[in-house]
Amino acid sequence: MNRFFDIPSDLQHDWFGLIVLHLREALLPVLGGLLLALPLAQLCVRLRWLYPPVLWVTTVLYAIPSLAFFVVLIDYTGQTELTVMIPLTVYSLVVLVPAIVDGVRSVPQETLAAATAMGFGPVRRYVQVQLPIAVPAIIAGLRVATVSSISLVSVGMLIGNQGALGNLLHDAQIYNRPELAWNSVITSAVLAVLADALLVVVRILLTPWMPSGARGGRSRPAGVRPDPAVPALEDAAR
Amino acid sequence: MNVINFVNAFFSDGAHWHGYDGIPTRLWEHVQYSLEALGLAALIGLPIGLVTGHYGRGGNVLSLVATAGRALPTFGLLVVTTIVLGFGMLPVMIPLVVLAVPPILVTTYEAMRSVDPPPVDAARGMGMRESDILLRVELPVALPLILGGLRSAAIQIVSTATIAAYVSLGGLGRYIVDGLYQHDYEKVVGGATLVAGMALATLAVFWAVTRAAVSPGVRRSN
Questions:
Q1: Which tens digit of pLDDT belongs to each residue from B57-76?
Q2: DSSP SS3 for A64
Q3: Does the CB of B11 have a partner CB in chain A at under 8 Å?
Q4: Is the minimum CB–CB distance between B71 and chain A shorter than 8 Å?
Q5: Burial tier of B39 (Cβ tally within 10 Å: 0-12, 13-18, 19+)
Q6: What pTM, to 2 d.p., does this model score?
Q7: Three-state SS across A26-50?
């Protein structure tokens, strides 16, 4: 067990260093994806005809295996963190755009009409009414994007030590130390679960008007349809 | 554009079209791996999702299981299963199934939950058995969403089955992994193009299945 955290020196980080590296490589892309997805989704909500082609393009991008994506990028960005982060940004974008579009579209017409009647302009109505109501759907999208991003960083190992915790998998093989592979899998799984839980907390803080256990089946009153974003999200999830 | 040149060069090279490393062989291997993984994942995810969705219980447990499943890094899991079980089909199938079960499970559950209660109550009032209500009333209505969940699982499997090549199995991942080690980017891009094409074909298959299997009455209301 004490060899579990004994990280070979070729990785040039200790266990905590690898965790920090892993989180940076996984979370910056999600943030970038969110920043790109917000305007793109707004465009899709405004121009309805744009949404189907955007969905098609993103589905195809999503289908490109992460390893192939990394390798092709090496030609342009070298064996750097950027090579791992660009594909992860694209994948996050793909998950987030439908989540935000469905979330914003699920805002009831009466609510929009009420906001307009109160004198809200289109921008203020979007920021102060539509986005907050879409928060549960957006967070649901962020959860899927974050968890899969943390899981995919490991593949970066294959393009030369850019996989953070995934690099342990390589060392597990060359030094014949299986416990390093276990360490890699367990640590990144725990990181993913913690990040996921953190996002749930953020959602509860951002939507004080919702019951905290709203995702559960039993608490939902009969006849109310479940969160429409959920199937849509699974649709986009990697 | 660099990438388009790579794609052209890859597909116009006759050597890539036959033999044990030819495109037809690798494509067929990839289809087999994907179908096996999807079949196993559906065998696990569908019954559990249908039954829990029907009774409306365990949604929180399901979403926990799904999160845990998604949290396990597919690639890391592959390395671990290979270390534990050695090389072979089983260590590749485990990560792929773990990858595909969460979307199937969660979507099936949510699809069953989204069925309007009045027809279900009516069926119960007419004296239908619970199993008949599940299979003949709820399932047809939930089918479009369930197929959506299966579709996203299938696309994830198709794209991720490429990792099988890392543990010396075949499939389209061979081009990507071999191309990486040979610094042959033409091969990598060609392999990625084939995988993306196969994902598009998967979309088309699911579109056709949805057309054929979903009852017209349900389709109209969506």
A1: 888 888 888 888 888 999 99
A2: coil
A3: no
A4: yes
A5: exposed
A6: 0.86
A7: HHHHHHHHHHHHHHHHHHHHHCHHH
